[in-house]
Amino acid sequence: MSKLQILEFPDPRLRTVAKPVTLVDAEIRELVDNMFETMYDAPGIGLAATQVNVHKRIIVIDVTEDKSEPLVFINPEVTVLDGDAEDYQEGCLSVPGFYENVTRIPHVRIKAMDKRGQAFEMEARGLLAVCIQHELDHLNGKLFVDYISPIKRTRIRKKLEKQHKMRA
Ligand code: QAP
Ligand code: CO
Fold it and tell me: Which of 59, 104, 128, 154 has its Cα between 20 and 30 A from that of 68?
């Protein structure tokens, strides 16, 4: 297994719309394993393939504290179920060090393929539901900072760009 490099905002590659996976083969399973390693190492609770510069519709999530529930969603289709919108403080491995409130409906139904290419469906609430929506956004080239005020977004962009320059 190997750790993958995570693209950071405002990298334009994070704006790529990911393509559906046509076949879940050994290469996809290896990517999934590497995505889990990268996410757990960070540590994070969710990672989309877009963030590691692979533009395929794959998400990994584990919202547990003890890494006990790894979830893989390939070609996810999400339906936001009705209910009350709630503010959640979101972060993102591609926007390190910044956390902002985003309003979402924390109740979704998700249909996807698992690691074996088997179709499944589940309902999710709370943090898991929010995380699914956040990661699905990545596959569509969208970031949580797109939902906040342009002033805050610009401030975050400038701070990260400065860090990237220092690193280079
Ligand atoms: C998405 O985000 C999420 O800034 C997953 O310095 C987050 O795993 C959905 C992380 C919150 C819903 C609520 C962020 C790690 C991890 C950072 C993450 C950082 C180190 C973010
Ligand atoms: Co993210």
Answer: 104
